[in-house]
Amino acid sequence: MGCRCSSSYLEGPVQNTSLQNEGRRALMGCLLAAAAGIFFCEAATAVSTSRRAVHYVAKWKGITFMTSRQGLGVGGGTPYGFDVGDSERGTVLKGLDLGVEGMRVGGQRLLIVPPELAYGNKGVQEIPPNATIELDVELLAIKQNPFGHQQYIGKVKHAVFHTQKAARKRVVVSTEENVVASLDLRHGEICGYCHIFADVITLSSGGSVLRAWNLPDGQMVWESTLLGSKASKPLLLIPTNLKVNRDNVLFVYGNGFIHAVATIDGEVIWKKELASEGVDVQQLIYPDGSDTLYAVGLLGLSQFDVYQLDVKSGELLRHYNMLFPAGFSGDLSFVSDDTAVAMDSTGTALVAMHFQDGQISFHQTDVSQLIQDFSGGAVILPSKIAGSFILKLDSSVVFIKVRNDGKLEVVGRLGHADAVSDALSLSDGQQAFSLIQHGDGKIILTVKLSNDWTSNVIEETTQMDHQRGLVHKVFINSYVRTDRSNGFRALIVMEDHSLLLLQQGEIVWTREDGLASIMDVKASELPVEKDGVSVAKVEHNLFEWLKGHLLKLKGTLMIATPDDVAAIQKMRLQSSEKSKMTRDRNGFRKLLIVLTRAGKLFALHTGDGRIVWSLLLNTLRKSETCENPRGISLHQWQDPHHHALDENPSVLVVGRCGHTSDSAGVLSIVDTYTGEERNHMGSVHSIAHIIPLPFSDSMEQRLHLLVDANGHAHLYPRSAEALGIFQRELGNIYWYSAETDKNILRGHGVRKNCVLEVSDEFCFDTRDLWSIVFPSESEKIAATATRSLNEVVHTQAKVTADQEVMYKFISKNLLFLATVAPKAVGPIGSVTPDESSLVVYVIDTVTGRILHRMTHHGSQGPVQAVFSENWVVYHYFNLRAHRYEMSVIEIYDQARADNKEILKLVLGTHNLTSPITAYSRPEVFTKSQSYFFTHSVKTMAVTSTAKGITSKQVLLGTIGDQVLALDKRFLDPRRTINPTPAEKEEGIIPLTDSLPIIPQSYATHALKVEGLRGIATVPSKLESTTLVFAYGVDLFFTHLAPSRTYDSLTEDFSYALLLLTIVALVAAIFVTWVWSEKKDLQEKWR
Amino acid sequence: MATYYVLIYLSLVLLLLPSALGISNGNVEGYSINGKVRFPAGTHLIEVAAIGYFFSPVRVDVSARNPGKVQAALTENRRVLTELVLEPLREEQYYEIREPFSPMSLLKSPMGLMIGFMAIVMFLMPKLVDAEELKRAQEEMGNQGVPSIANFLAGAQRTN
């Protein structure tokens, strides 16, 4: 929804240009809304992220060609439902989507829709092309989607303000999550329809893909692929008023070529290769009004090169260079059209380079000459201030002016600055830039003019939440105040990736864009409701409850007045006790604890998706001891269920200080009710594996084993009690590790305390129990999957239609592993079917025994797999059929197969709970089947319910960023083409070669979870229902009922109707009694 | 494998559809409407993701020996495409249509069944039993009379 489109590998800058595109202006033509009949004042107004139901009559030249009002019922017909923003996806007329914006429930509008917002120049059925149509719309209902769907964009890299002209002001941003978004400046929303007529151009994929976006709705106008031989830093230059053949032109440098591209359609006008000599071009310069384009770069780190090109033809006019023997360090900083500055290779001197008309001159100045107390470590900040640059030192920031003769002059010095913005040109020809300084719980924003370093134009102090950390980036924009002076607004990006707009010392809006990069999710219970409920409240509730159901009944019987409809609406909104902070009976209300890439922990309420608390973890912040911290995973640390109920639940956050598995680890334990950090350990041993153990101590703290890179296992929590439990269970602890690079799968166990210089009783030596070496010439580990630790299995056996019993082989220690031929690791199509094969294994991780092995010839990855109960479902690509395929493997216990005492099983006396040891050579048999599947799959998950009784669904994240809930019954290896009647009765679906995609089974419906990365499922207390949380750049939350209404009533179940029936039955009993009494009397009189 | 590339002009039928175009080979994945996509020689799979429409993946074979020769076919129904115009196979309706209110649905509900059964017992059952047969049966029973709800209720009241 909105004008946001994600694209791959967005690296380059976003620049703003004004494309002359009159046609597009017309497209956003007039939209006339008239006569909004407002009946109810308290009715919800239509806002985005809601679903609407309308009645409409569509007319063309007075002739009704389509209406929803035909059909049954008093109101007539079936109302038409659509989501706000559906028109973006082309499923709803744009005019209708736009036209109901701001309408109230019950309101009526007549919309006159221009063809651009209706059927365009195509025409549909009897409607001719370019027809202006009329829509008579009545808004019947708005259904809010409270958590449902939240949209984020990620950490902002570049921002361009768009505030000229009237209409709504906006800022276009590009982010680290590969998103280009346009935000409304007033509210910070991802805007749907803001009418500004300019376009945005982005450069991505290392300068090889150039795209132009239309601002109002984020649609792509054109895309141009620029070819080249050599990867290089992408550059983009958009001259303000340069025309070649009457087209506006922009210049792109990427992959060693300069391209001149027409802004109107993305056609390449000319291109010129510059990389042949190995010059690293760092800047394209176009002096206004001339017809020469300068490309300036470095060869090696010591030669300064300038190319002059003709803008019209791309012809190389001149090429000159000069050697700087001392060498440069880092990139060039350009202070004007003919001057650049760089540090020399020693980092102690500044070099100013002057180039014009074929002449290059260097001026070297020692930093210590400019700054007396210079001690090294100076960095030139990119700031784009004309004639000057900013030098950042350890403790201060220095402004240096470059004079025409190349001499440098210090013009100002500031204590310290945490972030400096790019220079902003003001209307009077001056340049302004801003600095951010941190204070105690506040930030100070100062705006200075480039010609006056000493005084501040603006100095504003804003209170800032500690949980947001430091300011990482600042972008400024000016506006003209009523007194004609310049005002400034600043967009700041914080350490936790949130985005804020500051204006006049106030935070105008905040966006929690850190949530676009979720690393891991864990669900936590809410506190139990403690205080009692008064009798009066119950009575009141009962009355309200009855009244509500009466109204609902009226609604179903269609005898509700508009007043009643409004009352029902209101009640539905109010009755959502969804947002309470206590547990509910059904277990729908929970907290989702999410860890983001910025190292911030958020608790999201599943009821309405609000942020209950957030915590920027100090252990995951950059510090001297921890240079590159990043969170890895979240684990349930304490989950009080039976005892220790006074304790709050908590989660364990595991992180690392570097990118490799041997870098120091960090641990934090965070209370999930309050969001306070209870305990933290910085820079402990390295963390290679985290093994949650199935034991907990008297405080219900789960025992965890953290294995470091040296093979030592460390026990947590570090308490004597935990140690006691651990030592009792020492012989029963096993884990495995898959070394993908070495192609080895190893099984491990614990031996004894480790021998270290400092004795540590919580540290244990590990021993290798077994290992499986895969032949490196034919197999490479592609994917692994294990069962979720807390999965519950209800039935251990499956009774088939012919009274056979199949015992499921259920073991916590099963591992699914898939290998592909090393050649086929690349993308699809790079190998022939004969060269590639996919081998799947089911391995017992205690003994290392391979229980099942199967080869899929002519298949390759990527492999996605999910393991649940006794089955595995995996997705891969079949090269022979050239289609994606999904397979299922079910594992059954052979040893118990002879045991046919069904009666005992039914009565529960069957000895299924007898201890099973993995060493007793399990005899298993497997069944498997494969099916074609249309789409590629990004991620896979399986639903989980409280007791594991109801059926399961496999959740597939599709390429379109939707979540498809596929019933496990479709993935049943016992499916046959012609099932017998008995099998049909059992519910076996006839076999088809491909899995059906039923659009109604998309859990996301018509929504998209942009950039989908993961799906988490949480059981609720209601056996039928499972909670599903899908995350990517967007977040999506929903309830799924895989077995439909297993233990819940249907949505339209009416209690009032039940009451009515009971009343009617009682009345009938009395009537019959009276009748029979009368009849009896008559008999007697006769 | 030959590093020979073919520029293919893809066009989506729905012009106003902002849609993602995913292509199996990582280097050409992108976002494109009527876009130009560069394919190296080999076999590729194009998937179109557009909310509201179902597109079949398209298999594209770019010949390495025969420059410029491109074959395309839909994988779902194996139809060969003569030009690379991607058309949706069908529209997708993500929402189930709410059943309109009907008296039958009321009757089918558990409560409706209860009332219906009672009505049958009350009004139809007496008519099914022949009046004369009933009389004979009553006579056979002698003076005990017909056990009726009235008697039962009256009896119950008396014991109270």
Please state the structural category of chain B: alpha+beta
According to DSSP, the number of beta strands of chain B is 12
Helix content of chain A: under 10%
**Portion in beta strands of chain A:** 35-45%
Count helical runs of chain B.
Answer: 4
Radius of gyration of chain B: 37 Å
* Overall mean pLDDT of chain B: 67
Protein name (chain B): ER membrane protein complex subunit 7 beta-sandwich domain-containing protein
Subcellular location (chain B): Membrane
Domain ER membrane protein complex subunit 7 beta-sandwich (chain B): 40-114
Membrane topology (chain B): Single-pass membrane protein
Question: What would you note in describing this structure?
Answer:
The complex is a heterodimer of chains A (1086) and B (160). The longest helix of chain A has 31 residues. Chain A has nine helices and 71 strands. In chain A, the strands form 16 sheets. In chain A, strands 3, 4, 5, 6, 7 and 8 form a six-stranded antiparallel β-sheet that branches. In chain A, strands 50-51-52-55-54-53 form a six-stranded antiparallel β-sheet, with helices on one face. In chain A, strands 57, 58, 62, 63, 64 and 65 form a six-stranded antiparallel β-sheet that branches. The N terminus of chain A is likely disordered. By secondary structure, chain A is mainly β. Chain B is α+β, with helices and mostly antiparallel strands and 160 residues long. Chain B folds into two domains: 90 residues, no CATH class; 46 residues, no CATH class. In chain B, the strands form four sheets. Chain B has a six-stranded antiparallel β-sheet, with no helix packed on it. In chain B, strands 1-5 form a two-stranded antiparallel sheet. Chain B starts with a strand and ends with a helix. At the A-B interface, strand 15 and helix 9 of A face strand 4, strand 5, strand 6, strand 7 and helix 2 of B.
